[in-house]
TrEMBL record:
UniProt entry keywords in alphabetical sequence: Cell membrane, Membrane, Transmembrane, Transmembrane helix
UniProt main location, coarse: membrane
Membrane topology label: Multi-pass membrane protein
TM spans (from-to): 43-60, 72-89, 109-128, 233-251
InterPro entries per UniProt: ABC/ECF_trnsptr_transmembrane (IPR003339), ECF_CbiQ (IPR012809), ECF_transporter_component (IPR051611)
CDD domains tied to this protein: EcfT
Protein name per Swiss-Prot or TrEMBL: Cobalt ECF transporter T component CbiQ
Lineage: Bacteria, Bacillati, Actinomycetota, Actinomycetes, Kitasatosporales
Top-level lineage group: Bacteria
Pfam families hit by this protein: CbiQ
Subcellular location field: Cell membrane
UniProt keyword Lipoprotein, yes or no: no
Amino acid sequence: MGAGHSHRLYRHGHSPVHALPPHTKLAAVLAFVIVVVSTPREAMWAFAAYAVLLAAVAYAARVPAAFLLKRLLIEVPFVAFAVLLPFVAEGERVDVLGLSLSVNGLWGAWNVLAKGTLGVAASVLLAATTELRELLHGLQRLKLPPLLVQIASFMVRYGDVITDEMRRMRIARESRGFEARGIRHWGVLAKSAGALFIRSYERGERVHLAMVSRGYAGVMPVIDEVAASRAQWSYALALPCAALVVCLLGWTL
């Protein structure tokens, strides 16, 4: 995990949030999501307060609102599911604009939308201020099982390699006049998928042999040991601590 690997969600910057050690940001986001999920759905004002807290983090990280909103589109399938809940859920019903909707379904839809959107927004902010390599280091620092960290590391490293291999195979097919137009071309695409699998497997075997020949024994060496000071932990945990206060008020008010 020594080489850098940027991703599209990352936004290069030099803000205080960017400078925080990755494991502190991972712990802060996890704690924030747990607090948000634990908030009663009836405390609607609390979710607005969480949104303000995330907006403050985005401002401190110098992440534009357009950047954040564009990447929130990933939750569109969950939005579609939430929209259907008032129509399919059972229980007491209420008329809204001439439509008979379930009260439990409306609350369920609000619960999914509010908590899901806040969780996705927090994750997007984490990805926008932390490179993938740093995220893997953070997971390793938080004592995640080493095997899972290695699997994630290899997936990140060779995802682009396999994507590039798919692009070359597509160009090769198109240069020979092939164009998938219907079900009768599925056979060619299936053979291409099989060839891609074999090539990826062979590449993995070569990489493994190269690693073993260089002394790999099942554990990746830690190149950058990043420690966090008490001030950095305090700065990172300010978000979940403030959210916890809001959550407690949501349960008591």
